[in-house]
Amino acid sequence: MSDQPLYRWLPQQGEAFGTPGLPPRWTSSVKDAVGTAYSASSRMWFTCSHGVVNEIYHPTIDKPQIRDFEFMVTDGESFAHEEKRDLISTFEYINPEALGVRYINNDPDGRYTLTKEIICDPHHSVLLVNVKLSGHHDLVSRLKVYALLAPHLDGGGAHNYGRAVDVAGYKMLLAWRNGWSLAMGATCGFSRVSCGFVGTSDGWRDLKDNYQMDWEFGSASNGNIALFGELDMSNAGQDGTRGFTLAIGVGNTIHTSLQKTLNSLVMPYEQNQKRFIEQWKRVANPEWLGEKAQDGGRLMRASHNVLLAHEDKTYSGAFVASASIPWGQAKGDDDLGGYHLVWTRDMVQTATAMIACGRAETARRALVYLACTQEPDGGFAQNFWVDGRPYWYGMQLDEVAFPVILSWRLWKANGLGELNVVPFVERAAGFLIRHAPVTHQERWEENSGYSPSTLAAVISGLICASEILRAHDSNELAAFVEEYADWIEGHLEDWTVTNDGVIHPQVKRHYMRIRPTETGPAYDRESAGIERIHINNRPPGTPDDFAAREIVDGGFLELVRYGVRRADDPLIVDSVKVVDIALKRDLPQGPGWLRYNWDGYGNGDHGAPFTGYGQGRVWPLLTGERAHYELALGNDITDLIRTYEKFATPGQMMPEQVWDEADIPGRGLRLGGPAGAATPLVWAHAEYLKLLRSARDGQVFDLVDPVYERYCTEKGLRPRRNLEIFTFQRPIQRIRSTDTLRIIDATRFEIRWSIDDWKTVQIANSPSACSAGFWFDIPAPAPYQDGASRKISWTLHWTDSGKWLGYNVDVQIDSTNPPD
């Protein structure tokens, strides 16, 4: 066996000093663009901001492999410019229909210009950066250009390795970690290369010291490293404009990354660019949606492509929330997930927007992915990697309901193909029935209890499930599911409304953001709103414990969006007044809204990045939610559409949050501009596309017709069964004399009950409700002749295990003061 080395390593000045370098950090999440080739064979994504490339993702959109990549320029004597800090950057797309980027980065003194086009190889996982350096010939001929790359392979900045190597006469730079490898090369070649540790022996520090490259280290091992190379500009042309293409390839072996990088370099850039644009043009933006846009369709086109770009190419149908890490410049290797994870809530918003754009096939891919990711009990993890592995484990009922609604939409649109959604829907509905109405977390992922926004999704999801089940001859189960939805709907105000509001002086009765579970009787409405909730992420020394009635959000508008309540419902109208006095902010673009008052998820002191506490800022997507509500009221929403569009960045990226105070130039914060959270937020782009479709149709696109018909029309308000439901997760103490007591449990049971203090006993077995469990109904007995109240007494025997409940449950019959 030969001991010949596989590669021609370049030892140069040996191992770099200063191991392991500074603690690794990610970079700004305020992206100018997210780019990728449309082809599924090119499994690479890039983000960019401040004139440079930020993360590269490969082989999946949840796997960042670098922190950033940029150029440095020096005359060797008087300056050394770093692109992101020293040059004046102008951004544009290389084509209105393609996610390729052009940066025009100018010397602040106007002496030279660095123009870059950034695309992915249309068929391989390689980033291509085509560069033109222009300016006065005498200066350009003296300028030296350097490439600076910070590998964060396998999603981490620590424990990276780098080496210099000669491949077929090309000087190249390599990095590897945990089985992943990265290679960087250029058409003009590197004249010199170096590997160093960030903050001690990296090329940036070297060049900034004396405008010269003095270090040529051949390796940097097991640390936070930077790769640095001087481009051989003698091979980049001789006139006033020099040009070259640089390539960065990522693979699961050193050989793969080297081979794919060189393959991309030998293909003329113009051919790669042409194919890249042609692929995106085949996507065909929904220009017909632009008729309601107020910006000529710019944000519509970008939003459409942004949604498509956030779908993974290995796990088809997996859409992540954002290719970013909020306030990434303050986050290290311990923040593995960022927003490049799947949340079913965000993903269904994306899929629904695809339906609104006429792309039912794309939405179906998302549904198939969700069907493959559904947990055995019918639920979903709070969020997960694209391969389905959970990241956080919280239980959010809306994230179980939304996939059911998506199934219904595709079914109604004849978009399911051969997919049989009945088992998927039935299991999700069963999960909702076993757990609703109390959610472990609401849509802001922070508190448990009764949430108007969550219950809007749950009610709608159950009605959608019942429609699908009935259409597939499961009539009894469909009725059971409907009755559970009716029970929740009938108690919405009991659970989520305060009668003694303290926020608006003229409005006492309004929806709360969330009401914690009861400590006393289940329907004790006199205490509704005085339960305490803890607000996460509040700054030290500030209040963080509040009565539920003190905290509001706009989540109750979801009741209107999906059809559970009319837009002109007096309680909705009054709650909007409360939201506006507490949450509305006037910005240069127009009105914006906070998530909720006292929100702690936002910038820290004086605009600092969020590192565990802060103050929540305006979320642009909430302007879209408000616009949908105003449309449901029959109002003109043109101005709100215009406001929404003005929140977009020059690259048409929608921020998660925007700054709502006076400018802080030192932190790059300006009134109405991105606050440093995720940009783009895919959910915000989906909301905009749905808003355009809603405006075009003259009706809220998300409206679920059978929900609206059931709860908002005279036809739907027909007599229903008066049910009160008992579960051991949420026991009740009394029912009305007109009610039927329904007992639901996950396990088959035999029930023994009495309505006369056990003088007589009745025994029955529980019918099955499939995934929802088992149930039994006991009608309330009539009062005694003397008017005295009665009770239902019962106990359970679980026949499969042979266990008994071990005590009797008494449910009082209330004929004098029943809950509404």
Based on Cα principal axes, name the global outline: elongated
Q: Please report the number of helical segments.
A: 19
Strand content: 15-25%
Radius of gyration: 30 Å
Estimate the mean pLDDT confidence. Answer: 95
Uncertain stretches: none
Walk me through what this model shows.
There is one protein chain. The chain starts with 7 loop residues before the first strand and ends in a 6-residue tail after the last strand. The chain is an alpha+beta fold and 820 residues long. The protein is elongated, with a radius of gyration of 30 Å. The strands form 9 sheets. Strands 1, 7, 8, 9, 10, 12, 13, 14, 16 and 18 form a 10-stranded antiparallel sheet that branches.
Detail the topology: elements first, then pairings:
Elements: E1 8-9, E2 33-36, E3 45-49, E4 52-57, E5 66-74, E6 80-82, H1 83-86, E7 88-93, E8 101-106, E9 112-120, E10 126-135, H2 137-140, E11 144-151, E12 160-167, E13 170-177, E14 180-186, E15 190-197, H3 203-210, E16 219-223, E17 225-231, E18 241-251, H4 254-266, H5 269-281, H6 298-309, H7 344-356, H8 360-373, E19 383-384, E20 390-392, H9 397-412, H10 422-435, H11 452-471, H12 475-490, H13 492-496, E21 497-498, E22 510-511, E23 532-534, E24 545-547, H14 557-562, H15 570-583, E25 584-587, E26 590-594, E27 618-619, H16 621-633, H17 638-646, H18 682-697, H19 705-712, E28 723-726, E29 734-736, E30 740-745, E31 750-754, E32 762-765, E33 774-779, E34 791-798, E35 803-804, E36 809-814
Parallel strand pairs: 28-30, 29-36
Antiparallel strand pairs: 1-12, 2-3, 3-4, 5-6, 5-11, 7-8, 8-9, 9-10, 10-18, 11-17, 12-13, 12-16, 13-14, 14-18, 15-17, 19-20, 21-22, 23-24, 25-26, 26-27, 30-33, 31-32, 31-34, 34-35, 34-36
Helix pairs in contact: 6-18, 7-8, 7-9, 7-18, 8-9, 9-10, 9-11, 10-11, 11-12, 16-17, 16-18
